[in-house]
Amino acid sequence: MEKAVYSAVLTPFNKDLTIDKKLFISHCQFLLKNNISLAPLGTTGEANSISISEKIDLIKTIANSDLPKEKIIIGTGNTSFVDAALLTKTAVENKIYSVLLLPPFYYKNVSDEGVYQYYKEIINAVKSSNLCIFLYNIPQVSGVTISIDLVNRLKKEFSDIITGIKDSSGNFENTKKYKEIKNFIVYPGSEKFLYDGLH
Fold first, then answer.
1. Higher pLDDT, 196 or 119
2. pTM flag (> 0.90)
3. Which candidate, 162, 161, 96, 164, places its Cα nearest to that of 129?
4. What does the pLDDT read at residue 192?
5. Are 178 and 167 in contact (CB under 8 A)?
6. In degrees rounded to 5, what are phi and psi of residue 165?
7. Which of 8, 46, 50, 92 is most open to solvent, judged by the fewest CB atoms within 10 Å of its CB?
């Protein structure tokens, strides 16, 4: 993948709380015209307030639009492994190969082994060599830190699939440690680290 700036995409809602898909696509097109790539269904997009069926519908809406799929990293994380695998598989089947995957959250103090097994099971369930996973480290929200040791273990076993990480920890010293990993793309989650993150 080329180096790029990705924007966390807002999810617009209608008054009845359904997703305004037309406005969503228009917003994405605006970002692309300004040379910004897309990261929909993340924290800013209120993904965890949206039902699985709505997410699947939005994934298909994106896939059927003229948005360039190679400029999209779509959020597919969920507390349920089954739902996370389903969303990831849906994205891949619709040729959106890059996904942003939260660790299993809500339950605190999850071990590295537990997080490793979660990602491994999703990879095995999706069964696609086209899959590109970006891990999502946002411990202040998820309650789970994606450690350097865990990244190295995942990268060693699934080198062609574990593509990178979005580090929203707010700690650039932590971000720099991720950047030391070979063939691994690191996106800082905070705009104050944007310049340093591109170098």
1. 119
2. yes
3. 161
4. 56
5. yes
6. -150, 145
7. 46
